[in-house]
Amino acid sequence: MRALVTTPDTKFGLLLKEAPDPVPSADQVIIEVKNASLNHGDVAMAAGAAPGRVQGWDAAGVVVQAAADGTGPEVGARVVSFGPNGAWAEKRAVSVKELAVVPDSVDLAVASTLPVAGVTAARALHRSGDLAGKRVLITGASGGVGRYAIQIATQEGAHVVALARRGDGLAELGAKEVVADLDNVEPVDIVLENVGGPTLVRSWELLKTGGVLQSIGWTSMEPAVFQPYATVTDPKSLVAFQSGNHYASDLEYLLKLVADGKLKVDIGWRGSWTEFDEAAAALFGRQVSGKAVLDVD
Ligand SMILES: NC(=O)c1ccc[n+]([C@@H]2O[C@H](COP(=O)([O-])OP(=O)(O)OC[C@H]3O[C@@H](n4cnc5c(N)ncnc54)[C@H](OP(=O)(O)O)[C@@H]3O)[C@@H](O)[C@H]2O)c1
């Protein structure tokens, strides 16, 4: 098969070339990948990976070989999948615990945007308690995680404050306040924090007693410097977040929202996987509003 294989020789550490077909374990299907979406994390990790590997987390396609243990979808099923690697290839082996069947009404390119960004948004919110009536601050809100988080939190009754330099369209997704900095924001009950650095420090200051801050990401790559005693206050929580695995049921939940017209998918960049470097440059250059999607053509 062809795949984007890690190499030290290109800017973003990937080159489209021949690679061995994946060998499935008993609980894995093989899918023919049609679309893959990019995440801040998997693109960053590819650049530092050992050479010769097939990377990528999110892929949607068609099952061409069912799982040997008899579980999961049949050959021909349209599915979306998550894995720690293997998405940026013509074929992917993936566990049936990490995929869901895509409804006929949902395009595979749209479905490919859901795994890491969508499941992270859903899990971070659902680990933060009841959302109804809560003030929820989402930082990095114009990105992949942020746009799904705005919509899910709003649907569950939260008052969403969205922090983004590029705030276009975020009010239409449900955000009640769209801000470019945190200077005049009133205290909040929950934070989904994607930016790190000074944004993390300021978000912590804005968190009410009893509140919870989910530290999801660090797109700024800047250090966070807390003033002395900033964490010696009435109790509130700063939680280290990892989305984890076993995505199947969360993917079904997200696909149903999309199929029911309750979750809008913003694809800010779409093109052939031969243009991976262009997509990665746009993502890191803060030029992608929403998700970047590759056509595996
Ligand atoms: N812990 C986990 O399991 C998990 C899972 C998924 C993602 N993450 C992390 O969560 C973060 C968000 O992921 P994502 O996929 O939503 O990323 P993304 O699509 O690239 O969006 C990130 C957003 O952050 C904002 N931003 C602020 N400062 C930035 C900077 N210096 N460089 C780039 N963007 C900056 C940008 O919005 P503006 O330009 O509009 O300000 C951008 O839209 C990443 O750090 C990612 O690695 C963690």
From TrEMBL:
Keywords: NADP, Oxidoreductase. Residues 13-294 form the Enoyl reductase (ER) domain. SMART domains: PKS_ER (SM00829). The keyword Disulfide bond does not apply. The keyword NADP applies. It comes from the Bacteria. SUPFAM superfamilies: GroES-like (SSF50129), NAD(P)-binding Rossmann-fold domains (SSF51735). This is NADPH:quinone reductase. It comes from Kibdelosporangium aridum.
